[in-house]
Amino acid sequence: MTKILMVCLGNICRSPLAEGILRKKLKEKGISVVVDSAGTAPYHIGENPDPRAITTAQRHNIEISHLVGRQFTVDDFDEFDSIYAMDVSNCDNILSLARNEDDKTKVELLLNVMEPGSDRSVPDPWHGGGDGFEDVFYMLDEACEKVANSLK
Fold this sequence. Notes:
By secondary structure, the chain is of the alpha/beta class. Helices cover 41% and strands 12% of the residues. It contains six helices and four strands. 45% of the residues are buried.
């Protein structure tokens, strides 16, 4: 079974939103894929997503309040087929752990699925208000739709 990992910095904002969005889209399309999320930093290990991320997801009928933050590890290269980073910094952090070219080929910036080679980042809404989470949701929603459609 295909396994996809969404990765941001703390695993409480962007990556759990992306995980929830992609899970919902795959379920609606009847596609069986494992989706998980992680952060490159240990700041929020064991914590649930940011309340603003939870609220934003719930507004779109997606439940992520049960998710628990964890840190990306080198073992994730063995566990997952595709690893989507939310921004260039986290992509670089993931790639720094890669053991070989096979590991590196699994890693991609999420927004590159919409605009290959653009290397655009999903902005981190953590320092802003609720509007930032909504803006990020729509970016993630569009990218996750592309990912889901590529798995048909």
